[in-house]
């Protein structure tokens, strides 16, 4: 059954409580009629408070829809961002990953940064790089509370930025970040080809895009910069891996169970 949250009758605090309840129960929700981006981001802050009250801790941000090649597919035409929590981020350890908590999960290969210092909006690429403690390649598992992945941009913001989980490969120091290509394949063969240039021209540009958000990024946060390929549906029993071309960063592999 799809839960219908009547946004016209609820403020963002009430929307947040009902969205989190739907998230916890794995209950789909209907698209929010009339929800705007300002209210959606206010909802995000309320959800953060609720999750912190139950012991979860924010560890960084995810940026979504930085890859313009997927905009038409979803009807979202600008990047969005959401919080990531200590309960949703983990290192890849070679063990199978349980998909059962997620709704209509999809996989996104991404480049992630760990911040040593807080970056500022006026920084050039060299200055931004000096703020980055480490870079890692990871898989973000995104999910949709909205059946069939039919939603608006404010819907995606309010519903956790579509974030489900982030699984990180090895962290390594970064002194430069050149353009590279990526291949995403499943047990059945190559599924997608992608490139860092698809992410607003490069992951550093994606990072720069959210330097004016409130609250601002802080030292110690991690940022995942958006999918390098299309987001692809995944299911239990599948194994997915990447191969990177033109960079010393290594590919990663993940098997799903339920």
By helix and strand content, what is the structural category?
alpha+beta
CA gyration radius, whole angstroms: 17 Å
Count of DSSP helices? Answer: 6
> In total, how many beta strands?
13
Question: What is the fourth-level CATH superfamily?
Answer: Fumarylacetoacetase-like, C-terminal domain
Q: Which architecture does the CATH hierarchy give at level 2?
A: Alpha-Beta Complex
Instruction: Using the alpha-carbon principal axes, give the shape.
Output: globular
Report helical residue fraction: 10-25%
Residue ranges: pLDDT <50 for 5 or more in a row? none
Q: In percent, how much strand structure appears in the residues?
A: 25-35%
Topology as a string of helices (H) and strands (E) = HHEHEEEEHEHEEEHEEEE
Distance between the termini: 21 Å
Reported by name, the CATH topology is Fumarylacetoacetate hydrolase, domain 2
- The CATH class is Alpha Beta
What would your notes on this structure say?
This protein has a single domain, classed as Fumarylacetoacetate hydrolase, domain 2, CATH 3.90.850. Strands 1, 2, 3, 5, 6, 7, 10 and 11 form an eight-stranded mixed sheet that branches. A five-stranded mixed sheet has the order 4-13-12-8-9, with no helix packed on it. Strand 12 and strand 13 (253-257) form a beta hairpin. The protein is globular and about 50 Å long. It has six helices and 13 strands. With 258 residues, the chain is an alpha+beta fold. The longest helix has 17 residues, at 37-53.
